[in-house]
């Protein structure tokens, strides 16, 4: 099938261990069955409040949870997150590309594609399909070009051209060396050219056609989305016949759904519920990973333009009480920019401890001896938000002890980014959570002139820029560790905790070992009743 001309030129400029419960022979009646002749359906209670567009890059609007529970089921990239070792940070593994070679100058990446891959509609996945999709993301003259979808693929800003060498070989030429090119291709998803030609972008947004291990089945608006196993999958076929994701943003409702058997698995399990769930025979899992839950301080305006106030915030909070008492060990206290599970973590940068006397002294020195009032916007539910209401209210109470009076302004996931994008939020800080494992995406959160929060350290930016073009892993890691040291010294954020992503599931859910990542591979998961 002819997809497009075989060459496209770019036209745009973008340690807590696993918590395991005793496996009791107890399990509420859920959606799955492990008998040979019964359908194995896994029903997941998600914290998402709404479903995103189902078109490739637009799925990222639902955060990592959207990618984990929707995008990675239907679509694939040339690479993927390698989570095969649950005790190691996620690496880079082959996906639709079985291997690759990098030129000595770091500018050309030549990919050998997997053989025998087809899209869910039967269209061949080949080098022409790669060029077709990249052209769609980068060429304004392409009939299926969508600036909104392409916006989510900043990695493609480094691509000068892509060329199909033969049916199973494709070469990307970059404008400059980019050390994270392979890592960042993981969610540059590929859609069927036939589907796009026949149904356009709107069709892809409603009926996604990829190459993934599951096929889109049905969607009930703002309630659920279902997928069936791709029996023609090029890799190891999934054991599950069906996955259904139900939208249950309220954490108590998710727990109730698990207890009643309405769902088999819940995301972001409430820490208060884990002990009783385990007593009832459910399984709880968690694993510390590179996930930072913090308050991003607006450092370009008062009061957080004064480093002493930012430092006071970090000395005023009791992270251990949040992690151990409130969250019952499902989080790890964060004393610096990087999580302990990060490749760039240095224990020497754990410079903030619980010291309310020091916090009060710093506030007095900064001219706030009588205290100050601030407003903080926070995401109520969604990807990685943890127990946002309870955590923010606990921080509110702790900060009040040193004279910092906090007004909390709850918003939903999309509302947070809409407010930040428009500016004039009326906030002094924002609470959201994200992973720092993808350094190329840091611009929106901390680089001078491009982040939402006014933070600027030119030395940090220089180290970050050097890391992006440093091919040696150890040298690159050292540069980013030093950048993190500077951000920690600056107290650019109020560092609170790092997540372990607690989940709970019925004991008949088998084959899942939680990785040190937000990424999950569902192909080995099964239902055994």
TrEMBL record:
Domain Solute-binding protein family: 92-451
Top-level taxon: Bacteria
GO annotation, biological process: peptide transport
Transmembrane segments: none
An annotated Gene Ontology molecular function: peptide transmembrane transporter activity
Pfam families linked to this entry: SBP_bac_5
InterPro entries: Peptide/Ni-bd, SBP_5, SBP_5_dom
Lineage summary: Bacteria, Bacillati, Actinomycetota, Actinomycetes, Micrococcales
Gene Ontology CC terms, in alphabetical order: ATP-binding cassette (ABC) transporter complex; periplasmic space
Record's protein name: ABC transporter substrate-binding protein
